């Protein structure tokens, strides 16, 4: 088993429950971990999970529609990755670093794991 990881992939989006989040947008940070087979040990990109394509998939899902909840956004990204790439499992964490809470927090997050 090989883990392929993309950490702190930053995308701007209009997700959220509050009207100002939907209107003004904010940065979302994605951490993606893929569990792949040993095929990539061939040292050929054709046999590996191409993380450039994974990043594009994350962007496509995030840009494709507005989500009220980061839980739903994380699940949609995980489902899309599992459907498109030869991985046995995927974990997606979506962080909201600009969240405004009282008392303040550094960020909120939702994590979703999917397995075949």
Notable traits:
3 helices; 4 strands; alpha+beta; elongated; GTP Cyclohydrolase I, domain 2; four-stranded antiparallel beta sheet
How many DSSP-defined strands? 4
Low-confidence stretches: none
Outline: elongated
The share of residues in extended strands comes to: 35-45%
Instruction: Please tell me the overall pLDDT.
Output: 95
What does this structure look like?
30% of the residues lie in helices and 35% in strands. By secondary structure, the protein is an alpha+beta fold. A four-stranded antiparallel beta sheet has the order 1-2-3-4. It is elongated. Helix 2 crosses helix 3 (70-84). The model has no long low-confidence stretch (mean pLDDT 95). It contains three helices and four strands.
Brief overview:
The chain is an alpha+beta fold and 116 residues long. The protein has three helices and four strands, in the order E-H-E-H-H-E-E.
Topology overview:
Elements: E1 2-13, H1 19-24, E2 26-36, H2 51-64, H3 70-84, E3 87-96, E4 108-115
Antiparallel strand pairs: 1-2, 2-3, 3-4
Helix pairs in contact: 2-3
């Amino acid at each position: 088993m090989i883990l392929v990881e993309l950490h702190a992939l930053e995308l701007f989006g209009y997700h959220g429950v509050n009207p100002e989040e939907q209107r003004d947008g904010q940065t979302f940070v994605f951490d993606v971990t893929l569990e792949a087979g040993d095929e990539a040990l061939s040292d050929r990109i054709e046999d590996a999970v191409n993380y450039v394509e994974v990043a594009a998939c994350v962007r496509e899902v995030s840009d494709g529609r507005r989500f009220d909840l980061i839980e739903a956004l994380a699940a949609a990204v995980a489902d899309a990755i599992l459907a498109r790439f030869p991985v046995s499992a995927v974990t997606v964490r979506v962080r909201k670093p600009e969240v405004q809470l009282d008392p303040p927090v550094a960020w909120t997050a939702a994590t979703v794991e999917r397995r075949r």
